[in-house]
Amino acid sequence: MLRRRDLCVYDNNLEKMLRAAEILEIDEIGSEYHGYVHENVIYRLNRPPSLITNYPYLVVSDKIGELSSPWLDIFVVRDYFRVKSILKKKVRTRIGLEIFFADIRQANGFSVGKWFEQVRDLYKLCNSINCQLVLSSGARCPGEMISARCFESLLNLCNIKPERYWRELEEWIEIRLGKKCYVDA
Amino acid sequence: MLNRRDKRRYLAIWNGDHSYDQRKLVEAISKRSSELFGQIATEKAKIRFIDIDEKEVIVIISCKLEMLGTMLSTIVLMQPPIVVLRISGTLKALRTRMGRDSEKLFLAFV
Lengths: 185, 110
Description:
The complex is a heterodimer. Chain A is an alpha/beta fold. Chain A has helices at residues 14-23, 80-90, 109-129, 148-157, 162-178, and strands spanning 5-6, 28-32, 41-45, 57-61, 74-76, 96-100, 132-136. Chain A has a seven-stranded parallel beta sheet. By secondary structure, chain B is of the alpha+beta class. Chain B starts with 7 loop residues before the first strand and ends with a helix.
């Protein structure tokens, strides 16, 4: 059974987000670390921790200057066309390139259409440079979260087969977390 | 005799913030759907308001099965946001599941 993941939700009340995720059939979420460790959460850090942690984490950045950093796991793509050429030249293989659905909620139809075309293009680029496309909700409260079924509709809209996406994401996370030094709580 | 009835799906939607007037929710979804997928796709989906729960936070709507993917994508791209909680082929099954999960729902979303 494939685990469905939304690797970026922002909320201080992680317990509430986890309850919402369970209802929405999302098995694991990614969130910022606020000092408490929860099950089914992968924490997002800006820098690799200096000490061994007791939680799984991914190092995330949206700064183009950090794209080639050896510790980077996920690069957040804010403006694809601006960074496309740099991505092709500088990106390290097997890192995740992340896009948020929250970014287009307020966009008009024209911009949403363009955005989906960018995601299709980014997916092709990810396949060619051996990177992992990561689609996340970017939700700031439970009311902004996306159910697994809705995620799959959006993936279809991006010409990505949902089953393949969840499987590749799972394999990629296993590899990324496998390289880290953390104590399983 | 051929069964000519449309296959439909029933969607339970969380509208806890009352961002949309209960009956205008369908109108708002249709409007966004037209903007994103066009008038033809929206009409084809035949979105209908079905019911609202006693606490007026969960709205049930229905749409044609063949346009379900389009509707779900539209709902995700709504602003203010709303959440699809459950999808079912029958209203009875949807209500049963929503009743069973009501406590969990309020703990997570309220």
